[in-house]
Amino acid sequence: MSESSTGEIVTAAGTWRRGAGLAGAAIGVLAAGAAAGVAVERLTVGRGMRKKARLALDASAPYGSLRGAPGRALADDSTALYYEVDEIDPEAGPPGAQRRRRLFGRRAPAPVTVVFSHGFCLNQDSWHFQRAALRGLVRTVHWDQRSHGRSARGVAQSGPDGAPVSIERLGRDLKAVIDAAAPEGPLVLVGHSMGGMTMMALADRYPELIRERVVGAAFVGTSCGGLGELTYGLPSAGVNAVRRVLPGVLKALGSQAELVERGRRATADLFAGMIKRYSFSSRDVDPAVARFAERMIESTPIDVVAEFYPAFAEHDKAEALPVFAEVPVLALAGDNDLVTPSSHTEAIAGLLPDAELVIVPDAGHLVMLEHPEAVTDRLADLLVRVGAVPAAANVGGHGSSADSGR
Question: What does the UniProt keyword field contain (predicted)?
Fold first, then answer.
């Protein structure tokens, strides 16, 4: 193994609007397994300057602009799950790909497909740098989890009862995406945070799929259980108090979604400060990358946050991990991840003794955006090991957040 405030929820009629706005900002981030917290980093520029910067970055939209061939899979409850496929460039594919096509034509053996699963309150675009680096070199599938991105709102969740989402349900969703987008051929599964948990749920429910088709796996900033014990870098007494009331508060806020969303927009600076604090560790994160993450997270409605939140405390898939023991595994995390601490990634590697454990220095939860080169390089190494990309493949500057071409 290589180791390379809580704030009082004000519900009185005269102050509900202000309280809901602050709660929507704080809880929306606290519950989001993608970028959570209640501590705020002091902002050093004026409100007007921040507003102008947000408008400029939103107008240019340099990140999250990569698109592939669209498709839709139907989950077993009829929820439409959106995915995109990036196919192999015949001139850049793995060795022998062109020869196989000449020999077999349409009947050529299916190529390796890399399936990327994103985290809570994010969407498939969170893999922007890795997608840019691998484009044309390997067949990839990027999908949006239910109620996220371009996927439909979960059918069970949009009903009158608003049933919560389970990690087990997400595992079944991933199976539906695989059946639709990559029904045959070897697979490499890559998941960040909730996406990694989704992979574990897939293995728990469909171990034969893992044994028969999966040739590699990458768990990025995720956990196999114990999330109910996290303190997010805050005093444990305060966090425990919040944890006791949070499910009920989230349900109440979810029933007032429009009001909460208006409040969250009104507290955009507070929201941005919390996202930065709990998504990234280094001080010199590209402002455009920070705003990109903020846009993804703020696009997740509070009622969706409420539906997913209970699943994380209940998540326990340690017993499913050994299904991956026979394939190359990458377990990677940021050393200052406050959402799914690196100790959780170390625990995953401990259950998979042959896994490559990588702890990226000066990195937070959104490590694939903060230090994209480190993540892309390790992922490329994994893909070379399983024969998905040629050893001489150049993933170059696409992995850098400083890349002006983006």
Answer: Hydrolase, Membrane, Transmembrane, Transmembrane helix
